[in-house]
């Protein structure tokens, strides 16, 4: 069964609802400190104002009821799809380790036959928001692709917020938006790069790499499949 944490905090639909409800900051700053949904929700209800805590209780219940069944139905059908002939596909993901003390990133490149080409991982001490970490993963993967002289690359992320920000016409001055601007600049310089959204289930290889990033040095590049 799909985990409650994923339904409430990892899935793109829930993240969009946080933004719409004005709850992004309330939730994101706690995601770095808690690893269990129950503990995070308890902290909100204990420390936030009554109106915020009450809205979150309703929100969590609604997201769980609406999405658990749907995700259980589609999870087994969401699989990685190869790029068209002549292109490479690079899946990227990010996460946290040691209760949010380190920010991990991972990416993996495969060809149109599904064959492994290369992969990379990185981790840093210090916390970021989840969307900042996802943008960092995308940016690092693009820089690696340029360094390796790759030309036709489709980059996939399971962060809908990051993908929409990359395709948006306007941006702001936050740390997240600065990362997005750097990604946009690389896309301009490399017109055969593209950025797309993919469901979490089809992004599992990058997710595993990000999760295992702390097993290696801070920056790693693999030309054979890493043992993670």
Strand fraction equals: 15-25%
The level 1 CATH classification of the largest domain is Alpha Beta
Shape: globular
N-end to C-end Cα span: 23 Å
The CATH homologous superfamily of the largest domain is named Ribonuclease H-like superfamily/Ribonuclease H
CATH architecture label of the largest domain = 2-Layer Sandwich
**Total tally of structural domains:** 2
Which topology of the largest domain does CATH recognise? Nucleotidyltransferase, domain 5
What kind of sheet is the major sheet?
6 strands, mixed
Q: How many DSSP E strands? A: 6
Structural category is: alpha/beta
Q: What is the count of helical runs?
A: 9
Question: Briefly, what is this?
Answer:
With 228 residues, the chain is of the alpha/beta class.
Structure report:
The chain contains 9 helices and 6 strands; from the N terminus they run αααααβββαβααβαβ. It has 228 residues and is an alpha/beta fold. It has 2 domains: 4-76; 88-222, 2-Layer Sandwich (Nucleotidyltransferase, domain 5). It has a 6-stranded mixed beta sheet, with helices on both faces. This is Cytochrome p450. It comes from Trifolium pratense (Red clover). GO terms for molecular function: nucleic acid binding; RNA-DNA hybrid ribonuclease activity.
